[in-house]
Amino acid sequence: MTRLSPIELLPTSDGQQLQISLDSETWQARRQTSAAGETLLDWEGPELDADTSRRILDTLFHTLDTPRLELLGRASAAFDTDHPAWSRGEGRAALERSAFYQIREHWLDSALWALIPETIVDTDGVSHPRRPAVGDQILYRRFAPSLGKTITLRQATVEEDGERFHRWQNDPRVAKFWEYPWSRDRLDAMLEDRRADPHSLPLILEADGEAGGYFETYYVAEDRLGPYCKAGPFDQGMHVLVGERRFLGAQQTNLWLNAVCHFLFLTEPRTQALWGEPRADNQAMLRYLETTTWENHGEFDFPHKRSALLCNPRQRFFANTRL
């Protein structure tokens, strides 16, 4: 995978100008900042293609931590503002941060853009919408400004991931909570089962092509969690496994969690909330989530464990998460 270069923002000492650099190219912008958001009043530099336009916008929203970006004059003409999420007028274009990060075409593989109409099927006596099939390509890709690396998600395969999945599950740190310190053959069969189940999607998270974690995602309605929460028909959940120790730490772990949440909300715009049910004594994970938009709804008992019931509402995630 080609490593993407970071985009650098350098404000002048008075804060009224921005210099934006990517590799050998540089742009200049005049800016105004208010409580409502950030305004670029002017723009100078090489022509922007659609991908560079998106990446600069992503960096501006993240680095300036602004809820809204307005482009005037030459700035409006310089950027790709064709998507209907933009509000446009004569010589101006404006976009809310919460809308920008919901533009599915920016982050998802094109095979995921089409949505299955809401047709109802039955699984083990549970009625639910039919779920999409997912391939083995890169499903989600985003350059994370805070990390300086490209985060990708793809479906786990036995051929590529069987060895690391076995190693991760047999790490005592992981086995304490996942409770799958099984043989390679048994774990290979588990991965194949997850891949074959329409309600489940086993994901491998990578940073600059290096695999660091396994995220098992699912639709809640037909999952064991369904009877314990008030999930909507398209709401999703996840199980979290950060396998490589160098991927641990509050800042990194929250970045991985938010990336997977972003992916799930994008894959299905009808998902109104994400749900989780980690073991109630997994204090490290619960502490990580305290600094995200996940809400703790208390504890409940599965037949096999006591769990914390967690919920991440869509609106709260996009309004408050600094991706």
UniProtKB/TrEMBL annotation:
Question: What positions belong to coiled-coil segments?
Answer: none
**UniProt key word Transferase:** yes
Gene3D superfamilies the UniProt entry points to: 3.40.630.30
Q: Which SUPFAM superfamilies match?
A: Acyl-CoA N-acyltransferases (Nat) (SSF55729)
Gene Ontology molecular function: acyltransferase activity
Q: Which residues form the signal peptide?
A: none
Pathway where it operates? Siderophore biosynthesis
> Which residues are in the Acyltransferase MbtK/IucB-like conserved domain?
154-201
Under Pfam families, the record lists: Acetyltransf_8
Q: Does the keyword Transferase apply?
A: yes
The record's keywords, sorted A to Z, are: Acyltransferase, Transferase
Q: Write the Enzyme Commission number(s) for this entry.
A: 2.3.1.-
* Stated name of the protein: GNAT family N-acetyltransferase
Species in which this protein is naturally found: Marinobacter lacisalsi
